UniProtKB/TrEMBL annotation:
CDD domains tied to this protein: AmyAc_bac_euk_AmyA (cd11317)
Protein name, per record: Alpha-amylase
Catalyzed reaction equations: Endohydrolysis of (1->4)-alpha-D-glucosidic linkages in polysaccharides containing three or more (1->4)-alpha-linked D-glucose units
Domain Glycosyl hydrolase family 13 catalytic: 51-396
Positions of region (Disordered): 354-375
Keyword Oxidoreductase: no
One example of a Gene Ontology biological process annotation: carbohydrate metabolic process
Residues passing through the membrane, by range: none
UniProt similarity note: Belongs to the glycosyl hydrolase 13 family.
Length: 490
């Protein structure tokens, strides 16, 4: 959406109920002590150039751990964005919608995806596989007015809106107790309530310490960084103050949808910002088949490449402003592969569960606990495993440090470009394409990573020859991709 960050439908909030809160902000027992905020102040840094993260939306912790070991690590993914791990409301009457997870009850690590032990084991397993964990952190608010009488939270905590015993009391919330109505007023956007959610007074020391303690607790468990949910609704100076106290040097990227009132550039002192303009431009252009217009794509003018987190879609745009999603099939894979081949920003690959109703939660048991994610199960979409996507993850890593070279297009729906001597890719949204291309690749036989991979020295997909002058003769079918890089020269 252009003017606001949508976390869930208003209708769902109005039908949901208010819970009561736990006296515990952290851990699992009454003897737990909130972590002390660190005095370390250092800017967050992005992952290594060429890194790619997967957004494993609503995946349970055991399943994320298994996927890190079985697929993500071996296929070059550097990180995973996981859904919020803190205790949240449980909305059985609403069918356990996906957005219940974005209404925190406490900071105990006990959600429908697993408890603290499950989460900790997942982080350790993924780290061992070379995959960092980035937590979707909800810092702007607690529960909403629509959650009245829904029962205890996912960890069994009781609470009421504006009253979370042992964590927050009435004075910890903003004086504005009304929904945002003027989306041209930055103060209202940041200090009034987003869809009736209890807006935290993030300028207050007590609130900042509690939020910092929660994030440092996650860092202590091995978490490498955070996606700050609804960052646009928190004053940038408040986020900067919170992040400056975090232990170590976590990677931070913030959800900020640019509009006339708020620019993502206001948040770059804290970390990267999500580049929704890039998503709209890339998705819309690929959808319309006008790929030639992607030459020089660089997202919003408010961000530089090293300040932008980019994506084709995310869990919000899938439901509220869909341009391209997994439902579009091959064109979606073309867009994702282009994002990975092109050097702009830090890319994030979506991995979804299948849905028809935009409010639907993930596959679950009758008690609302998320079912194990399995890419053999049609309920889990697993976009990150599609060969044109997974293959181009490796392409991006190999091509890191090289700019765009050898650009070619047909003026419309077919483009090709290289990454210096490291890689060359072709993208086709038109009719079947057969032609020769000038590349900067060294001579040799290459495995097309968009159709297969090298196993025991052999390519499971198509192979192509590059001659001594860097010339490639190739055929690329409609709605498909070709990707060659020096790491798969046979």
């Amino acid at each position: 959406m252009k003017h606001r960050t949508i976390l869930w439908p208003v209708s769902g909030l109005l039908a949901a109920t208010v819970l009561a809160a736990t006296p515990l902000a952290y851990g699992t027992s009454s003897t737990d002590t909130p972590p002390t905020a660190s005095s370390v102040s250092s800017p967050s840094t992005a992952p290594t150039e060429g890194a790619v993260m997967a957004h494993m939306f609503q995946w349970p912790w055991d399943s994320v751990a298994r996927e890190c070991t079985d697929f993500l690590g071996p296929n070059g993914y550097d990180g995973v964005q996981v859904s919020p791990p803190q205790e949240h409301v449980v909305l059985q009457g609403e069918g356990f919608p996906w957005w219940q997870d974005y209404q925190p009850v406490s900071y105990q690590l006990d959600s429908r995806r697993g408890d603290r032990s499950d989460f900790s084991e997942m982080v350790a397993t993924c780290n061992e596989a070379g995959v960092d964990i980035y937590v979707d952190a909800v810092l702007n608010h607690m529960t909403g007015s629509g959650s009245v009488e829904s029962g205890p939270g996912s960890a069994g905590s009781e609470f009421e809106k504006y009253s979370y015993p042992g964590i927050y009391e009435n004075s910890d919330f903003s004086e504005c107790r009304a929904d945002i109505s003027n989306w041209d007023d930055p103060d209202e956007i940041r200090n009034c309530e987003l869809l009736s959610l209890a807006d935290l007074r993030t300028g207050e020391e007590g609130v900042r310490s509690t939020l910092t303690g929660y994030l440092n607790d996650l860092i202590d468990l091995g978490v490498a960084g955070f996606r700050i949910d609804a960052a646009k609704h928190v004053p940038p100076q408040d986020l900067e103050a919170i992040v400056s106290r975090l232990d170590g040097d976590p990677y931070v990227f913030q959800e900020v949808i640019e509009d006339s009132a708020i620019s993502p550039a206001e948040y770059t002192g804290t970390g990267e910002a999500t580049d929704f303009a890039y998503s709209e431009e890339l998705s819309g252009t690929v959808r319309d088949g006008s790929l030639a217009q992607l030459k020089g794509i660089n997202g919003t003018e408010a961000l530089n490449s090293d300040q932008a987190t980019v994506f084709v879609d995310n869990h919000d745009t899938q439901r509220n402003d869909p341009t391209l999603t997994y439902k579009d099939g091959d064109p979606y894979n073309v867009a994702t592969a282009f994002m990975l081949a092109h050097p702009y920003g830090t890319p994030k690959v979506m991995s979804s569960f299948d849905f028809e109703d935009p409010e639907s939660g993930p596959p679950a048991a009758s008690n609302g606990m998320t079912s194990p994610a399995n890419c053999e199960d049609e309920d889990w979409v697993c976009e990150h495993r599609q060969q044109p996507v997974a293959g181009m993850v490796e392409f991006r890593s190999v091509a890191a440090g090289s700019g765009v070279t050898d650009w070619w297009d047909n003026g419309n729906d077919q483009v090709a470009f290289g990454r210096g001597e490291n890689g060359f890719a072709v993208f086709n949204r038109g009719a079947d394409l057969s032609r020769t291309f000038q590349t900067s690749l060294p001579e040799g036989t290459y495995c097309d990573v968009a159709s297969g991979s090298v196993v025991d020295g052999r390519c499971t997909g198509e192979t192509y020859e590059i001659d001594t002058g860097g010339v490639l003769s190739a055929s690329v079918a409609s709605d498909s991709v070709l990707g060659l890089h020096v790491g798969t020269r046979l």
